[in-house]
Specification:
Structural class: alpha/beta
CATH class of the largest domain: Alpha Beta
Largest sheet: 5 strands, parallel
Radius of gyration: 20 Å
Order of helices and strands: HEHEHEHEHEHEEHEHHEHH
Number of helices: 11
Strand order of the largest sheet: 7-6-5-8-9
CATH topology of the largest domain: Rossmann fold
Helix content: 25-40%
Shape: globular
C-alpha cells in the first residue's frame, strides 16, 4: 500500500504532490463510505485521537470529530478555555499529560504559528495541524483542492483566484502551496493593505481589481475578513471593502463563462459575498463541507498507518 512521506500533517509546505494525490484517492473511497446508509468503518477502532483546540472553532472541530467517529476511533476532546493552560501549564506539559493516557494522535489548533512543528519535536504521537495562527490550515487547502478536482476533473492548469484578507489567512497560504504543487495558476486579489509584501515570491500573481480577476479565473475562493486578527484598520469601512471586493450575483451573471465560487467559512453574508451568491448553483460551499469530512478521514487513516502500536507515546 502507498503511504505518506510524512509522519505528521503540519502544513502543505511539508508534503509532496504524491502525498496530495494519495490523500485524494483515499478520500474518494471514504466519500463513498459516508454516503452509505451505514456510514461507519472500523479502520481506526484501536486508535485514540485527542482533539486539542486552543482556539475557538466550530466547523473544523466538528468535521474532525465526525471523521474520527466515522473511522471508529476513540475520541478525546480538549478545550483550552476550560483547562490547566489557563493556570500557566505549558503546551508540552499539557500534551504529555494527555499522551500519558495512551493517546495515539493529536489534532491541534493553536493561535501561535509553528505550534504544531514545535510540538512534533517534543512528542512521539502523530500530529495533524488544524490551524496554527496565520500560518497554515492544511486540511482546509486539501478539501478545497479536492472540491475543485471533483467539479473540474483536475486542478492542473486551472486558474484559481483567492480574494480577500490574504495577510491574515492561513487558508490562503495553505491553498497557495497546494494549488501550486498541483499545477494550478494562482492569483491573489484584495486591498494592498491585506496583501503580504512577499506574496509574489510564492509564484502567484497579484491583482487589486476584482472584475479583472473574475474574468481570468475558473474558480474564485472568497475569504472572510479576519477582524479578530487585526490590530489596526486595514481599510476605511466594511462598506467600502464590500463595494470593491465583495462578490454579488450581478457580477457573476455579467461574466461570459461560469466560474466556481468557494468559501472556507464562516461566511459574512453581505460582506465578502451576498446571499444570492452563497446559495447559487455555482457556489460549492456545502460540497466543501462534505468533502472536509472525507479528506480528514483520509488524512487520519493514512497517518494512523504510521503508528507503531508497540511504542509508548509518553516521553
Amino acid at each position: 500500500m502507498s503511504e505518506l512521506s510524512v509522519k505528521h500533517l503540519l502544513g502543505i509546505k511539508y508534503i509532496t504532490e504524491s502525498d496530495i494525490h494519495l490523500i485524494f484517492e483515499t478520500a474518494d473511497h471514504f466519500k463513498e463510505v459516508i454516503n452509505r446508509s451505514i456510514k461507519k468503518v472500523p479502520s481506526l477502532r484501536d486508535i485514540t485521537i485527542a482533539n486539542l483546540f486552543f482556539e475557538n472553532s466550530t466547523r473544523t472541530r466538528l468535521s474532525f470529530e465526525l471523521a474520527e467517529k466515522r473511522l471508529s476511533a476513540d475520541v478525546v476532546n480538549f478545550s483550552a478555555s476550560s483547562s490547566s493552560v489557563k493556570k500557566g501549564e505549558t503546551l508540552v506539559d499539557t500534551v504529555n499529560n494527555i499522551l500519558s493516557m495512551k493517546v495515539d494522535m493529536v489534532v491541534m489548533r493553536h493561535p501561535n504559528p509553528g505550534a504544531g512543528v514545535f510540538l512534533s519535536r517534543h512528542i512521539e504521537a502523530n500530529i495533524v495541524n488544524a490551524g496554527d495562527g496565520t500560518h497554515e490550515h492544511p486540511t482546509q487547502a486539501l478539501l478545497d483542492c479536492y472540491s475543485i478536482r471533483e467539479r473540474l476533473g483536475d486542478v492542473s492548469g486551472k486558474n484559481v483566484a483567492i480574494v480577500g484578507d490574504i495577510l491574515h489567512s492561513r487558508v490562503a497560504l495553505s491553498n497557495i502551496f497546494a494549488l501550486k504543487k498541483l499545477g494550478a495558476n494562482v492569483t491573489v486579489c484584495g486591498p494592498k493593505t491585506l496583501l503580504p509584501k512577499y506574496i509574489e515570491d510564492l509564484g502567484v500573481s497579484v491583482e487589486t481589481d476584482l472584475k479583472k480577476t473574475l474574468n481570468w479565473c475558473h474558480v474564485v475562493n472568497m475569504l472572510r475578513v479576519q477582524h479578530e486578527r487585526m490590530d489596526i484598520n486595514y481599510f476605511p469601512t466594511t462598506r467600502e471593502y464590500t463595494q470593491q471586493f465583495g462578490l454579488n450575483k450581478n457580477m457573476l451573471d455579467k461574466l461570459d463563462k461560469e466560474i466556481l465560487v468557494m468559501h472556507p467559512g464562516p461566511i459574512n453574508r453581505g460582506v465578502e459575498i451576498t446571499s444570492d451568491v452563497a446559495d447559487c448553483d455555482q457556489a460549492i460551499i456545502l460540497d466543501q463541507v462534505e468533502n472536509g469530512v472525507a479528506i480528514r478521514m483520509a488524512v487520519l487513516y493514512l497517518l494512523a498507518s504510521k503508528i507503531d502500536k508497540n511504542e509508548d507515546h509518553k516521553l
